[in-house]
Amino acid sequence: MKFAVRRLGSARLEWVEAPESASWLAVPGPLGEEAAISVAADPLFCTEAAEAVPARPLGDDEVRQLPVLLQRGLELVRSLDAAWSRHVRGVRPSLAGGVVLELLVPAGDQVRQLAHQLSQQCDFRVAVVTLEPNLAMHGSLGRIAHAADSVERILGRLLGESHQRPGGYPRIGATVVTPRGTGTVQSVRTRDRTVLVRIGEETVRFTVDELADRA
User: Fold this and answer.
1) SS3 content of the chain, % helix, strand, coil (to 5)
2) Residue 117 contacts by C-beta under 8 Å, 6 or more apart in sequence?
3) Rounded distance between C-alpha atoms, residue 48 and residue 121, angstroms
4) Residue 146: CA count within 13 A, CB half-sphere
């Protein structure tokens, strides 16, 4: 099955192939597998839309480890000097404990030296991925959280602690109960208050009133 996903800590979208539907998937990266959340997206807004990378559903234990991994990445970014931190567009933790930084800078020796220097300073592996300017225009994480921010609260929003957004609509990627079984929200249409839900290998549209949060 083919899904559009957004890697944890990144604003970019891409296509993956997975054997089954899941809110959270593990996708390959430069430092091993990374967590990614399923989203509904048009192929035009996905990077490398022609080729889908392989993915697998994340286990419950792996999902519970994400706050710790994300905290490590945020602390790394806070340690960068201003010359580099202003170029950060993504902070992607790997499931093995590494951190992948997305930087809006040209690839070159300085970037390789930065990755080597950070790996030497930290007790975990660090990789740097450079972004093309046109890709960065598709969005970014915004500012990096300050030390006073709650990483658990940030990740809680990503994990769907609150399954609904204003207006009573379920969040994209949330698991909901429908008249035809449990599924994952793919998209929301406000003009007629309907929601597209993936159930197994098919997608079905329901009204908001027909859905309930998974207990």
Assistant:
1) 25, 35, 40
2) none
3) 33
4) 1
Q: How many CB atoms lie within 10 A of CB 45?
A: 14
* Angle (CA) 172 176 42, round 5°: 30
How many Å apart are CA 187 and CA 199, to the nearest integer? Answer: 13
DSSP state of 3: E
- Strand-pair partners of 7: 36
Name 36's bridge partners. 7, 25
Over its length of 215 residues, how does the chain's per-residue pLDDT go in tens digits? Answer: 787 888 998 888 888 888 877 889 999 999 999 999 888 655 555 555 457 889 999 998 998 898 889 888 888 888 888 888 888 888 999 999 999 999 888 888 888 888 888 888 888 999 999 887 654 444 444 444 444 444 445 555 544 444 445 456 787 777 889 999 998 888 888 778 899 998 988 899 999 889 887 54
Strand pairing report for 2-7 and 13-17:
antiparallel
Topology at the third CATH level for domain 64-158: GMP Synthetase; Chain A, domain 3 (3.30.300)
Fold of 163-213: SH3 type barrels. (2.30.30)
Q: Note the Cα 136 to chain centre separation in Å.
A: 15
DSSP conformation letters of 21-35: --SEEEE--BTB-EE
User: To which residue do tokens 């559903």 refer?
Assistant: 57
